[in-house]
Amino acid sequence: MIVIRNTLAAVLAGAFLSPAMADEKEDLLTLKKQMDGEREELLELKNTAENLVELFVEQGLLDKQKAARLINKAKAKAQTEAKQQLVREQAEKPLADDAAVPAAGSGVGAGNGNGKPVFVGYVPEFVKEEIRRQVRADLKNEVVKEVKADAKQEQWGIPGALPEWVANTKLSFDMRIRGADDFFQPDNEPMYDYLSINEAGGHLAARNKGREYLNTTKDRFRFSERFRLGLDMKIAEHLKAGIRLATSNIRNPVSNDQALGNTGQSFEFAIDRGFLQYDFVDNKGNDWFTLYGGRFANPWVSTDVVYDPDLSFQGLAGTFRYRFNQDSAKVKAYKAALTNDLSGRSGINFGPQTPDSVFATLGVFPIQEINLSTADKWLFGGQLGADWLVRNDSRLKVAAAYYGYKNIRARPNARGSFENDWTAPEFIQKGNSLVPINLNDGFNPRCTSAQSTIGQGCLYGLASDFNIFNLTAIYDVDFSGTHAVITADYAKNVGYDAARIEREFPGLLADNREKTSAFQIRFDIGDPDIRRFMAWNVFLAYRYVERDAVLDAFTESLFHAGGTDAKGWWIGGSYGLARNTWVNLRWSSTDSIDGPKLSIDTAAVDLNVRF
User: Which of 124, 132, 129, 121 is nearest to 91 (CA)?
Assistant: First the structure.
C-alpha cells in the first residue's frame, strides 16, 4: 500500500503542474511503466485468492453458491475501501498554491469564494485500478479466515473445523489384484503336503481327501485379491494406536491374499494389525527410540529371504537410535522414500529411517501359546545396525541380527502318548526337514497300519532348532532422482544339531546333513517410490536358500511357490499407471537344491492402488 500511496502522490502532483504538464508527460509514462509491473504482481495476488476459493470448491469443502457470495462480498468491500482511500488521500495532501493550474473560468483559475483559484486534480484510471487490486489482495487473508470460520460452524472437511478425534486419525487403504501362474516341469518328483497330513491326522486321512501330496506337475493359474484398510490414531503426544483390517487366509501368516473362485462364499476379513506405538522425540524433532506393542509391522532391517512382506509380528519390540551429524544440511534435507511392500521395491524392509545413526532393535514375540503347558513357542530377536549418508547422493545401511526360536522343534511322543503333539507347527510351507512326532509302529492308537504304512507318521514336526544369524547390507545411490540399490543378504541357522536329531529320531530323517545357509544378491534401479504416472523401477536377484537355513513358514510365499530348499533367479519391475496406481510384474525360475526334484517358473502380475 505504501508503494501505491507514494506513486499516487507523485501522479497527483504532476497533474497539478499544468505549466510543466508537457515536461512531466515523459515522467508520467515512466511511472506508468512502473505501475504496470506492480499491476502484474497485484494480479498474481488476486488470482491466488480466487484460485484458493476454487480449490475449496473442487475439494468439496465449499459449495459454488457460497464461493460466489464470498467473491462478490470481497469485490463490494474492495470498491468501498477504494473510494474511502481516495477521500483520505486527498484530505491528507491538500493542493499547494505554487502548484496551481488555472481553471477555465478565469483563464487563471476559478474562484473558490476566497478569491483563490480552485484546482481540480486528475487521477489516472490505471492508478484507480491498481488501488482496487491492492485492496482485493489485502482481503485474501481475511477471506480465508472467513471461509475457515464458516467451515468450523457448518462442519466442513477442513482439519481445523473437524472434531479432534477426526483430525488425529490418519486413514490408509491399499488394494491389490494378482494373477499368478506356476509352470511345473513334467519330471518333477512327488512331495508330501505335510501341513495337510497334520491337519487330517495322518497320511491315509489326507489321501482320502486328495491332499496327501503337493501339486508338483500340473501348471496352475490363479487369481487373488488383497484388501487392507488401516487407521492410525494419535492418543497423546508421541503415542499412537494403529489398527488394520485385511482380507486374509487366517491360518497363513505370510499372505493376506484371498483366492478368487469361491463365488458361493464370502471373503475372510480379519484384524491384520492392532498395536500401540510410542516415539520419544526431543525438542529438535529427533526420535531417539520407538516402542511397539501388539501386532505390528516388521521392525527389522531384512529381506524376504527371512521374512515375507505380509508377515506381521506379535509381541513387544523397541528400536533405540544414537544420532550423529544431525545439524548437517544433507541430513536435515534427506527425505526417505516409502520402504514397505507398497513402495514398488517389495521384498526389502529398510527398518528405521534415520540417516547418520547407529541403532539397536530388540523384540520378544510369542508364536504359539500352549494350553496346560509352560512350553510356549517364542521368538527372541536382536539387531545392531548403522545408517550413513556416505555422500549427498548415496546411503549405506548395514545390520546384523540374531533370531532365536524357542520350543519350535519336534519332540517324539512315547508309544500311546500324545503329550508332545503341541510341538507340531501350526503352519509350514515346504522345505524344512520334518520328522514324525507320532510314529506308526503298529501299536500307536493314533497311527496304525490301517491308516498308513509302517514307519510313517501321522503328525510331523521340525527336525531342527532355529537360531538364525542374519547379515543385511543395502547401498542406495541417487542419480538425480533415479536410485540404484544393491542389497546383499546372508542367513545361517546355527541351531541345527545332527547328533541330537539322530538320537531322538533314529533313522527317521532320510538326509541328516546340515543344510543351513542362505544368501541373496539383488540389484534395483528406478524410482524409490511408485506414486505417479510413469514412475518405474526394476530389479534382478539371485537367491539360494538351503532347506534348514530359515523357517520355511515365514519366508517369501511366491518364489518357488513358497518355502526353502530353493535356488534361482528373480526379476521384476513396477510402472506407475496413474497417481497411486501401478502395475508390478515378477518372474522367477527356481529349482530345488538337494530335496526331491522340483523346478518351477512363476509369473505374477499385480495391479495396485492406494491412498
Answer: 121
What is the pTM assigned to this prediction?
A: 0.74
Cell of 605: 502380475
Q: Would you put residue 325 in left (φ > 0), alpha (ψ -120 to 50) or beta?
A: left
Q: Is 610 helix (H, G, I), strand (E, B) or coil?
A: strand
pLDDT in tens, 102-117: 444 444 444 555 555 5
Rounded Cα distance, 27 and 6, in Å: 14
Angstrom distance (rounded) from CA 16 to CA 28? 13
Q: How many residues does the chain have?
A: 611
C-alpha neighbours within 13 Å on the C-beta side of residue 416: 1
Q: What type of residue sits at position 572?
A: G
Structural Rg of the chain based on CA atoms: 37
The more confident residue out of 315 and 23 is: 315
In the structure grid, which three cell numbers stand for residue 136, read together? 482485493
Alpha-carbon gap, residue 115 to 137, rounded angstroms: 44
Classify strands 482-493 and 517-526 as parallel, antiparallel or unpaired: antiparallel
What's the rounded Cα separation, in Å, for the pair 313 and 379? Answer: 10
DSSP string, 365-392: EEEEPPTT-S--EEEEEEEEEEEEEEET
Across 51-79, b (16+ Cβ under 10 Å) vs e yields: eebeebeeeebbeeebbeebbeebeeebe
Distance CA 369, CA 348 (A): 30
Question: Which residues, other chains included, contact 34 with Cβ-Cβ below 8 Å and sequence gap of 6+?
Answer: 7
Among left, alpha and beta (phi > 0; psi -120 to 50; other), residue 263 is: alpha
Q: Say if strands 287-296 and 258-259 run parallel, antiparallel, or are unpaired.
A: unpaired
**Residue 365: band (very low, low, confident or very high) from pLDDT cuts 50, 70, 90:** very high
Q: pLDDT of 23-57, one tens digit each?
A: 455 555 565 566 666 566 666 666 766 776 776 66
First to last CA, the chain: 44
Neighbours of 370 (CB within 10 A): 13
State the DSSP string of 454-468.
TT-EEEEEESS--EE
**What pLDDT score does 100 carry?**
46
310: closest CA among 508, 174, 510?
Answer: 174
Q: Comparing C-alpha atoms, which of 228, 224, 241 is closest to residue 275?
A: 241
Cα dihedral 404→406→410→411 (10° resolution): 140
Strand-pairing partners, residue 545, are 518, 566
